[in-house]
Design brief:
By secondary structure, this protein is an alpha/beta fold. It contains ten helices and 15 strands. It has a seven-stranded parallel sheet with strand order 6-5-4-9-12-14-15, sandwiched between helices. A three-stranded antiparallel sheet has the order 1-3-2. α1 (about 5-15) crosses α3.
């Protein structure tokens, strides 16, 4: 089991049981107590948990909901749901499209479902996505990096230079996710820099898709971005599509259920 996968399992267990000791976690995950202690130290540094004497506890409700997760940790969360949404999103991409992918791990998952014989131009500010594109050698894809200031936590580029490159581009389709959507319909993020670059992406794109499962509703970040009615399509899982129906019905956005 990889480190990030194990840490995600610890986090999920703490979400259920609230408090767990090192010995119990070590037995359940078949690793040493020292490994668990390192994992707990990492999770505490990420502002997800609080270490206690001999174990750890989940932060009190509301104390960690606005925390911005590292890209490595985000890559391990809700993988099956992300793949379902990504597969549906990929079905909207046609040969010769110019598309833009934000730095979300959900958007990056779209690459796995794109036909390699398509002639695509893929624009992104995600270093992880760029690396995946670099490793895909049997494709007819061109990658354009937005450049700019590197945010290590999210492994993305932001700032004036990235927005300046965007001003020269007019993507056919944009695919993004977000930290969450608040009750007023605003998409939220964990940093103002991410809000700025995603707002610029929305402004320059012809057709805009947001990919989000039910866990994002009400799980708001610290900074408000554009309202969801700026998007054209809302791709979510079938259960969430029914849940969001009333919320989105007056916002001029089409809900697309994915299973």
């Amino acid at each position: 089991m990889y480190n990030e996968e194990r840490r995600q399992k610890i986090y999920e267990m703490l979400k259920i049981q609230k408090v767990l000791d090192v010995t119990t976690l070590a037995k359940r995950l078949s690793v040493s107590c020292e490994t668990i202690r390192r994992d707990l130290k990492y999770l505490e540094k990420s502002d997800l948990i609080k270490r206690t004497h001999g174990g750890a506890m989940l932060l009190p409700s509301g104390e960690n909901k606005n925390k911005e997760l590292t890209v490595g940790f985000r890559k391990t969360i809700n993988l099956d749901k992300k793949r379902i949404l990504a597969k549906k999103a990929a079905s909207f991409i046609a040969d010769d499209d110019v598309i833009i992918l934000d730095n979300s791990t959900t958007a990056a998952s779209i690459l796995a479902f794109l036909p390699r014989n398509y002639h695509l131009t893929i624009i992104t500010n995600s270093l992880q996505t760029m690396l995946e594109l670099y490793n895909i050698t049997n494709s007819e894809w061109t990658c354009i990096s937005l450049g700019g200031h590197l945010r290590r936590k999210t492994c993305s580029t932001v700032g004036f230079l990235a927005k300046n490159v965007l001003s020269y581009l007019r993507p056919d389709k944009m695919f993004m996710s977000c930290a969450g959507i608040n009750t007023e319909g605003q998409m939220t993020e964990g940093s103002i820099e991410e809000v700025e670059i995603k707002t610029a992406m929305i402004k320059e794109s012809k057709m805009k898709f947001i990919l989000m499962d039910e866990t994002k509703y009400g799980n708001t970040g610290s900074f408000n971005g554009e309202n969801v009615d700026q998007m054209d399509y809302f791709i979510t899982n079938e259960a969430a599509a029914e849940k969001y129906k009333d919320f989105l019905k007056d916002r001029n956005i089409e809900i697309i259920g994915a299973e």
